[in-house]
Amino acid sequence: MQLELTKTQEKNLKALAEQIIDRNTQHNLTGYKSTEKLYKEQIIDCVKALHACKKGLEKTVVDCGSGAGLPGLVWGVVDSSLNIATIDSNLKKINFQTKAIKTLKLDNITPIHTRTEDHIEQRKHTIVTKAFGSVKKTIEANKNNKNKKNLMLIKKDNEKTHQELLDAAPLIYDYKRHTYSHNKESMVVLEIYDS
């Protein structure tokens, strides 16, 4: 997959990686120690995931369990037409995101300090998660969100993910698989419609 990033987008994504590593000790954002490794392994993965599932997204996207802002902040840098809400129950992580959003001058992202289960989005939206939990846990955490069109779960395309899909089968009305590869690994964005 060819990544089509403008120079500004690339600069902002690298700046985000730097901020995550720089603020990691205060906010416990990642296990990564290297900005370059974080950029290549996680940030570029988020960019590829966006390209893979973009056609299925609503204009409003809610990133649940956003942590360091992956994928929410990355998607906000790459596509300024998206309105993104980043949700996390950890106030330190939301404080980090607020500062990063201000530094990067992103006006299409709103960080919200709350639990995923408690957030009700008024507009029709897509929920996205990366490293949030199992397929079943993600669906259950968002079951009260009546305005959601679908869920996009960024996962490794492996046996564990296949088993998670089977375990969540009674909760799923329909789903699509958007596959891509990253760092020689098979990845998938599961586009889920719950029953």
**Strand/helix succession:** HHEHEHEEHEHEE
Tell me the overall shape: globular
* Number of helical regions: 6
Alpha carbon gap, first and last residue: 33 Å
- Mean of pLDDT: 95
Could you tell me the strand content as a percent range?
25-35%
Decide which structural class fits the backbone: alpha/beta
Q: List unreliable stretches of 5+ residues.
A: none
Helix percentage: 25-40%
Main pleated-sheet profile = 7 strands, mixed
Number of strands: 7
Strand sequence of the main sheet, in spatial order?
Answer: 3-2-1-4-5-7-6
Return Rg in Å.
Answer: 16 Å
Give a quick set of tags describing it.
195 residues; alpha/beta; 7-stranded mixed β-sheet; 6 helices; 7 strands; globular
Protein architecture, described:
With 195 residues, this protein is of the alpha/beta class. It contains 6 helices and 7 strands. It has a 7-stranded mixed sheet, sandwiched between helices. The mean pLDDT is 95.
Summarize the structure.
The protein has six helices and seven strands, in the order ααβαβαββαβαββ. The termini are far apart. 39% of the residues lie in helices and 27% in strands.
Write the layout of secondary structure elements.
Elements: H1 7-27, H2 35-53, E1 60-64, H3 72-78, E2 83-88, H4 91-103, E3 109-113, E4 125-130, H5 135-141, E5 148-156, H6 159-168, E6 172-182, E7 185-194
Parallel strand pairs: 1-2, 1-4, 2-3, 4-5
Antiparallel strand pairs: 5-7, 6-7
